[in-house]
From TrEMBL:
Record-annotated GFO/IDH/MocA-like oxidoreductase domain positions: 133-254
Residue intervals of the Gfo/Idh/MocA-like oxidoreductase N-terminal domain: 8-122
GO molecular function annotations of the record: nucleotide binding
UniProt protein name: Predicted dehydrogenase
Domain of life: Bacteria
Residues annotated as signal peptide: none
Amino acid sequence: MENKSMLGIGIIGIGIVGERLLQAFKDHPRTEVVGIFDANEKRLVEVGENYGIEIFYDSIQLIESRKVDCIYLAVPPKFHYSLAKEIIKRGKHIICEKPLANSLLEAEEMLALAEQENIMHAMNFPTVYRPSFLTLQNHVKKGFLGELTRIEVQCYFPEWPRSWQNNNWIKSREQGGFIREVFPHYIEMIQRLFGDIENVCSYIEYPSNEDQCEKSTVAIATLIDGTPILFNAVSDIGMKENLKFTLRGTSGVLHHKNWTELWRETPDIKEQVILPSENHFTSFINDIIRNFNGEPTRLVTFREGVKIQMVLEKILEGCNCRKF
C-alpha cells in the first residue's frame, strides 16, 4: 500500500459519533479533513462553519474528490452497504462505523468487494485502543485469570436512546437498539482475546410498538472450547448507566467498567488498576497511518466486522422473543 505523508479524509455522516472522529482527524498531524457530507443540510453547514471545513452537498462528489484518499463512513447502518459500494468501486480506502452493515449478506459483500479492490478497510472500534482494554489484554496474556471459566457482559441503561444520541434510527427495530449499537464492542473484545463465538441463543423483550427496538435481552453463547458467555442488558431502569465486561478465571477476575476503568480481583484483593493516559483516537489514527506504511496494526477490519455481524444476527434471531 502506498506510503502517505498526509492522508486526505472525507467524512460522510457527521452526527455525534462522526464529529468525535472528525476532531481527531483534524488534530492529527498526518491527516487532513478534505470535506464533509451529511444528509441534514443544517447540521452540515453548522459543522462546516465550526471547523472551517469544505462542505459537499453530494456524497458522490466528496468520494470522487482527488484530494480524498480515505472515506470515514458514519451514517446509520442501513446506508453502509450502498455507500460503501460507491466508495470501494472508486478505489478509495474506507473506515466504517459499526455494525458493518444492516445484514450479514451485506457485510459479506462489502468485505469481498474491499478485498477484490485491494483497498484498506477498517472499522471505528475505539474501545480496543483504550488503555483499559489494552491493560486487560496484557493481564490475560500474562495469565492473571488462570483458567478462564466465564465471560459476562452487563449493560444497564436508564433510558434508550441515551440523551446524547437520541434520534429516530437508533431507537428503531430496523437498525437501532443496544444490541446493534453497544454489543459489537464487546463481541470484538471477546473474539480478539479468545477467538470465535458460537452456540448463540437469546431471549429478547420488545415493546408492543413493532417499530421500536428491544427493551431487554439475555443471551448465552460459548467460545469454541465451550467457555460460557453471558450477555445481560436492559433499558429504562432506575439507575445510572452501567456497562461491565467481566472475565472470571480460576486465579483472578477482571472487570472492564464503563469503557475507561479496569478492576482486578483475587481472593485477597479487589483494586482499580492505574492506567496510562493515552488518546485512543490518536492511537487509532496512528494505526491507519502505519497500515499505509506497510506496518503491522491492531485495526479492526471488515473481516472482523463480518464475524461480529454473524454473532449479532444470531442474537437478534432470538430463541424466544416476547412483546410487552
